[in-house]
Write a structure and sequence with these properties.
Helix content: over 70%
Number of helices: 4
Largest sheet: none
Order of helices and strands: HHHH
Number of strands: 0
Strand content: under 5%
């Protein structure tokens, strides 16, 4: 198992245990260093994702504020009711007219096919 470099003398149990502990500590330290780098990468990626989400939410809130500043006639020209501003800003908005929705879907398909 462990020898001190010569074949004549066997190591004592104490020396073997001391070397085994030192080796175990080196392995654990290497694992911790490896995981520490991965953890740091995860922290940076998560922070970047949170910053992007926060910026997107800030943009949606500013858009909602701008729409709330419009009068009802301007909102009607856009096809949005005041109660539907949040839905429109968050992309969950549906038009009142079924045919205009279908036409916009057809236009989007044609644009994708042309691209």
């Amino acid at each position: 198992m462990f020898t001190n470099g010569t074949d004549e003398q066997q190591l004592s149990f104490y020396d073997i245990e001391r070397r085994a502990r030192a080796e175990r500590n080196r392995v654990i330290a290497a694992c911790v260093r490896s995981l520490g780098g991965e953890f740091a990468h995860w922290i940076v990626a998560t922070a970047a994702r949170l910053v992007r989400l926060f910026a997107a939410e800030l943009g949606r809130r500013r858009a909602a504020q701008a729409l709330h500043a419009l009068d009802d006639h301007a909102l009607a020209d856009l096809g949005v009711r005041r109660s539907g501003i949040e839905s429109a800003v968050r992309g969950q908005w549906r038009t009142e007219d079924r045919w205009s929705t279908q036409n916009s879907i057809r236009r989007a398909r044609l644009q994708r096919q042309a691209a």
